Amino acid sequence: MAGRRFERLERLFSDTMIDAHCHLYSSKYDDDLHEVIQRAQEKLQAVIISAVDPDSLQKSLAIRRKYPDFIQVTAGIHPRNAAKLNKEELRELLQVISNVKEEIVAVGEVGPDFYRTKDPRLRQRQLSVLEDAMAQAEAMDLPLVIHARQAEKAALEVVSRCTTGVLFHCFAGTRQMARQITAHGFYLSFSAILLFSSELQRAATEVPLELILTETDSPALSPRRSQRRNEPAFLETIVSHLASLIDYPADKVGSITAANAGRFYGLADL
Length: 270
Prior knowledge:
Elements: H1 2-12, E1 17-22, H2 33-41, E2 44-51, H3 54-66, E3 71-75, H4 79-82, H5 87-99, E4 106-110, H6 120-140, E5 144-146, H7 152-159, E6 166-168, H8 175-183, E7 187-190, H9 198-206, E8 212-214, H10 235-246, H11 250-265
Parallel strand pairs: 1-2, 2-3, 3-4, 4-5, 5-6, 6-7, 7-8
Helix pairs in contact: 1-11, 6-7, 8-9, 10-11
């Protein structure tokens, strides 16, 4: 039954991979960004850069303008910034995002990070910013990319009634949480954490493949122990591992997860 469902998805979409979330504006790529993108172009159909503040947004858009057929951009608010914003600062940031609507494919990443944020008041502020960002995404008719580190339940409570698409990027929660998120029709994206977490590996086998994306979250989370700096070309390691978990060919899993990313981000021309 599962095999027939996967085959149907393959017939509908292309046969390559998409890195659904990374940070190529990082200074770690200052010396060789073009070569990094060239290596990605050899293996991937597209790369999605997630900006987290106005500075990274401008850098990300500049990269996109150099590689318009390959790079896409999302615009969000990093949790460490969200915890400190007053209402006027948040309004200004959301306006910055609104101003680039035609150049982005999603709002985010944005959301709570309870791993690094311990103060209950700051956690609540992160959730409040998420709620405002969700309203912004709905108003712009764009999907929403969630950052929820050790805060998946709290984030899901906020976005459960979201009227646009929702992606929990770099998902690292429990398999029970994975099932709850996908029960809403929301997407999960797996990073290289999938290679090392038995809980995530079980989750990957229990949620619909058509709601799974794959990402590097580079430059962090390299799947290669010999290369600490991650990059989009390394996505194949994550896709291959996901394929082994669900016992399905890696090239076909790459095709399906790329189709999922294209559907979520509205990449109709890819």
